[in-house]
Amino acid sequence: MATSTRPERTSGDAATAELHRHYLRQMLLMRVFEEKAGEAYSLGKIGGFCHLYIGQEAVAVGSIAALRPDDYITTAYRDHGQALARGTSARAVMAELFGKATGCSRGKGGSMHLFDAGLGFLGGHGIVGSHIPIAAGAAFAIKYRGGDQVSVCYFGEAAANIGAFHETLNMASLWDLPAVFICENNGYGMGTAVARASAVKSLSVRGTAYDMPAEAVDGQDVFAVRAAMDRAVARARAESKPTLLEVRTYRFVGHSMSDAAHGTYRTKDEVEEYRRRDPIKVLAERMRADGSLDDARWSALEAEVKAEVEDAYAFAEESPDPDPSELYTDVYAPEGVAKSEARGGEAP
Amino acid sequence: MTVVTYRDALNQALREEMHRDDRVFLMGEEVAEYDGAYKVSRGLLKEFGPKRVVDTPIAELGFAGIGVGAAMVGLRPVIEMMTWNFALLAIDQIVNAAAKMRYMSGGQFGVPIVFRGPSGAALQLGAQHSQAFESWYAHIPGLKVVAPATAADAKGLLKSSIRDDDPVIFLEGEMLYNLKGEVPEGEHIVPIGKAEIKRPGSDVTLIGHSKTVAVALKAADQLAELGVNAEVIDLRTIRPLDTEAILGSVARTNRCVVAEEGWPFAGVGAQVVDLIQREVFDALDAPVLRVSGADVPMPYNKHLEKAAKADAGKVVEAAKRVLYMS
Question: Which of A195, B113, B299, B322 is the most buried (most CB within 10 A)?
Answer without folding.
Answer: B113
